[in-house]
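Researcher: Please generate the 3D structure of the following complex. Treat every line as part of one assembly.
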Amino acid sequence: DADVTQTPRNRITKTGKRIMLECSQTKGHDRMYWYRQDPGLGLRLIYYSFDVKDINKGEISDGYSVSRQAQAKFSLSLESAIPNQTALYFCATSDSARDVGELFFGEGSRLTVL
Amino acid sequence: AQSVTQLGSHVSVSEGALVLLRCNYSSSVPPYLFWYVQYPNQGLQLLLKYTTGATLVKGINGFEAEFKKSETSFHLTKPSAHMSDAAEYFCAVVYGGSQGNLIFGKGTKLSVKP
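Model: Done. Output below.
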């Protein structure tokens, strides 16, 4: 089983719908992240959480919200999806006791907004 | 603004040829530097990293990178390309120590011709 699991792996939805992407991890890491990948743009940070009570906005948080339900779970919500949120979304984890920047990624959630 | 630049969005080499993927960062303060690899339909995984110490770092699958402060560069090399090296490679930097977050380059897609 994967250490960082994302659900759903693929989702097609319509403009205006609410969407939640979920991430769970079995690595025991305290830090969790949501990134968005677009072709030619690399990965951009949406939100990150250093522990359950610590949530921070990243580079492109507008239109997104997150919830850290437990140390192992970090979900990303799009309250009202729009077509330019079509992208590949990655959840990642890291251990604050290890070198900063050493992230472990899930396999991604591909979201298409029509 | 802090940034990382990867020269060349696509690089094509023949099997057995040298692989050179270029990365430059912008900062007067040496950052932590990383290379991540993304195989098709997978998440990213860490290839190698530089934090402190020896400037030539070795990673998985025969890749290595050298931190050159005078050139603000961290280029990735492999002496002999293999078909299995075909993937997208991302350079990333962390500024701000343990509270910093990864900033990714836009990626370089490596193709390996037989």
